[in-house]
Amino acid sequence: MTNSLVGANSKPQGTAFLSLDRGLQTVVMAVPTAALALLSVLILKGAAGPSAGQILILLVAAILALVADLRPVQIAPHRNTSFSSVPILIAVLLLPPLMSATMAGLSTLAANTVLRRPWYNSLYNAGLTVVASVAAAAIAQPPIGPTGPS
Protein backbone atom coordinates (compact mmCIF):
# COMPACT_ATOMS: atom_id res chain seq x y z
CA MET A 1 0.00 0.00 0.00
CA THR A 2 1.13 3.56 -0.56
CA ASN A 3 0.69 6.41 1.87
CA SER A 4 -2.73 5.05 2.89
CA LEU A 5 -4.28 7.28 5.51
CA VAL A 6 -7.73 6.13 4.48
CA GLY A 7 -8.33 2.42 4.11
CA ALA A 8 -10.66 0.88 1.57
CA ASN A 9 -13.85 -0.58 2.99
CA SER A 10 -16.94 -2.30 1.70
CA LYS A 11 -19.26 0.71 1.84
CA PRO A 12 -20.21 2.46 -1.40
CA GLN A 13 -17.54 5.06 -2.06
CA GLY A 14 -19.76 8.12 -1.66
CA THR A 15 -21.13 7.06 1.71
CA ALA A 16 -17.73 5.77 2.87
CA PHE A 17 -16.23 9.24 2.46
CA LEU A 18 -19.18 10.90 4.18
CA SER A 19 -18.90 8.48 7.08
CA LEU A 20 -15.34 9.70 7.82
CA ASP A 21 -14.76 12.14 10.65
CA ARG A 22 -15.12 15.77 9.47
CA GLY A 23 -11.48 16.51 10.32
CA LEU A 24 -10.29 13.51 8.32
CA GLN A 25 -12.48 14.59 5.39
CA THR A 26 -10.79 17.98 5.53
CA VAL A 27 -7.30 16.47 5.49
CA VAL A 28 -8.20 14.06 2.70
CA MET A 29 -9.37 16.96 0.52
CA ALA A 30 -6.68 19.46 1.60
CA VAL A 31 -3.75 17.30 0.49
CA PRO A 32 -4.75 16.99 -3.20
CA THR A 33 -5.72 20.68 -3.17
CA ALA A 34 -2.24 21.59 -1.90
CA ALA A 35 -0.72 19.35 -4.58
CA LEU A 36 -2.66 21.15 -7.32
CA ALA A 37 -1.59 24.50 -5.90
CA LEU A 38 2.08 23.45 -5.92
CA LEU A 39 1.81 22.17 -9.49
CA SER A 40 0.15 25.45 -10.51
CA VAL A 41 3.04 27.42 -9.03
CA LEU A 42 5.53 25.25 -10.93
CA ILE A 43 3.58 25.74 -14.16
CA LEU A 44 3.51 29.51 -13.66
CA LYS A 45 7.28 29.51 -13.04
CA GLY A 46 7.64 28.21 -16.56
CA ALA A 47 10.15 25.67 -17.78
CA ALA A 48 11.96 24.78 -20.96
CA GLY A 49 10.64 21.90 -23.01
CA PRO A 50 11.89 18.46 -22.02
CA SER A 51 14.80 16.86 -23.87
CA ALA A 52 14.64 13.35 -25.31
CA GLY A 53 16.74 12.09 -22.40
CA GLN A 54 14.38 13.65 -19.87
CA ILE A 55 11.38 12.03 -21.56
CA LEU A 56 13.10 8.64 -21.43
CA ILE A 57 13.91 9.08 -17.73
CA LEU A 58 10.32 10.18 -17.11
CA LEU A 59 8.83 7.14 -18.85
CA VAL A 60 11.15 4.63 -17.18
CA ALA A 61 10.60 6.18 -13.72
CA ALA A 62 6.83 6.26 -14.23
CA ILE A 63 6.70 2.60 -15.26
CA LEU A 64 8.93 1.54 -12.36
CA ALA A 65 6.86 3.56 -9.86
CA LEU A 66 3.63 2.07 -11.19
CA VAL A 67 4.96 -1.50 -11.03
CA ALA A 68 6.34 -0.90 -7.53
CA ASP A 69 2.94 0.38 -6.36
CA LEU A 70 1.18 -2.62 -7.89
CA ARG A 71 3.60 -5.10 -6.27
CA PRO A 72 3.90 -4.12 -2.59
CA VAL A 73 6.33 -5.98 -0.35
CA GLN A 74 5.08 -7.54 2.88
CA ILE A 75 7.26 -6.32 5.75
CA ALA A 76 5.21 -7.83 8.59
CA PRO A 77 1.90 -9.64 8.94
CA HIS A 78 -0.80 -7.38 7.46
CA ARG A 79 1.79 -4.66 6.73
CA ASN A 80 2.84 -3.87 3.18
CA THR A 81 5.06 -1.20 1.75
CA SER A 82 5.81 -0.01 -1.74
CA PHE A 83 9.18 0.88 -3.15
CA SER A 84 7.67 3.37 -5.60
CA SER A 85 9.47 6.18 -3.81
CA VAL A 86 12.80 4.96 -5.25
CA PRO A 87 12.03 5.72 -8.94
CA ILE A 88 10.19 8.87 -7.86
CA LEU A 89 13.24 10.10 -5.96
CA ILE A 90 15.46 9.31 -8.95
CA ALA A 91 13.11 11.38 -11.12
CA VAL A 92 13.22 14.22 -8.57
CA LEU A 93 17.02 14.21 -8.73
CA LEU A 94 17.28 14.03 -12.53
CA LEU A 95 14.26 15.96 -13.83
CA PRO A 96 12.77 19.42 -13.37
CA PRO A 97 10.35 19.62 -10.40
CA LEU A 98 7.22 19.98 -12.55
CA MET A 99 8.00 16.84 -14.55
CA SER A 100 8.95 14.70 -11.55
CA ALA A 101 6.02 15.82 -9.37
CA THR A 102 3.50 15.31 -12.17
CA MET A 103 4.92 11.87 -12.93
CA ALA A 104 4.81 10.92 -9.25
CA GLY A 105 1.19 11.98 -8.86
CA LEU A 106 -0.03 10.39 -12.08
CA SER A 107 1.76 7.08 -11.48
CA THR A 108 0.33 6.91 -7.94
CA LEU A 109 -3.14 7.79 -9.21
CA ALA A 110 -2.89 5.12 -11.93
CA ALA A 111 -1.76 2.46 -9.45
CA ASN A 112 -4.54 3.33 -7.03
CA THR A 113 -7.08 3.16 -9.84
CA VAL A 114 -5.83 -0.27 -10.93
CA LEU A 115 -5.96 -1.42 -7.31
CA ARG A 116 -9.57 -0.15 -7.14
CA ARG A 117 -9.04 2.07 -4.15
CA PRO A 118 -11.81 4.56 -3.30
CA TRP A 119 -11.59 7.87 -5.15
CA TYR A 120 -10.81 9.85 -2.01
CA ASN A 121 -8.01 7.43 -1.07
CA SER A 122 -6.54 7.69 -4.58
CA LEU A 123 -6.66 11.51 -4.56
CA TYR A 124 -5.09 11.66 -1.11
CA ASN A 125 -2.27 9.26 -2.03
CA ALA A 126 -1.52 11.03 -5.32
CA GLY A 127 -1.63 14.45 -3.64
CA LEU A 128 0.70 13.34 -0.87
CA THR A 129 3.14 11.96 -3.44
CA VAL A 130 3.12 15.26 -5.37
CA VAL A 131 3.66 17.33 -2.20
CA ALA A 132 6.54 15.06 -1.11
CA SER A 133 8.10 15.23 -4.61
CA VAL A 134 7.97 19.02 -4.70
CA ALA A 135 9.47 19.19 -1.20
CA ALA A 136 12.25 16.79 -2.18
CA ALA A 137 12.92 18.78 -5.35
CA ALA A 138 13.14 22.00 -3.35
CA ILE A 139 15.81 20.41 -1.17
CA ALA A 140 17.66 18.57 -3.93
CA GLN A 141 17.56 21.34 -6.54
CA PRO A 142 17.95 24.67 -4.73
CA PRO A 143 17.71 27.79 -6.87
CA ILE A 144 21.00 29.02 -8.28
CA GLY A 145 21.83 32.70 -8.25
CA PRO A 146 21.49 35.50 -5.74
CA THR A 147 19.02 33.51 -3.59
CA GLY A 148 20.80 30.15 -3.79
CA PRO A 149 24.23 28.72 -3.20
CA SER A 150 27.13 30.53 -4.81
Q: What are the key terms here?
A:
150 residues; mainly alpha; 2 strands; globular; disordered N terminus
Could you characterize what this model shows?
This protein is mostly helical and 150 residues long. Helix content is 66%, strand content 5%. It has six helices and two strands. The chain has helices at residues 13-18, 22-45, 52-70, 85-94, 97-114, 119-140; strands spanning 73-76, 79-81. The chain has a two-stranded antiparallel ribbon. Helix 3 packs antiparallel against helix 4 and helix 4 crosses helix 6. The longest helix has 24 residues, at 22-45. The N and C termini lie far apart (41 Å). Mean pLDDT is 83; it is low at 1-9.
Write the layout of secondary structure elements.
Blueprint: H1 13-18, H2 22-45, H3 52-70, E1 73-76, E2 79-81, H4 85-94, H5 97-114, H6 119-140
Antiparallel strand pairs: 1-2
Helix pairs in contact: 2-6, 3-4, 3-5, 4-5, 4-6, 5-6
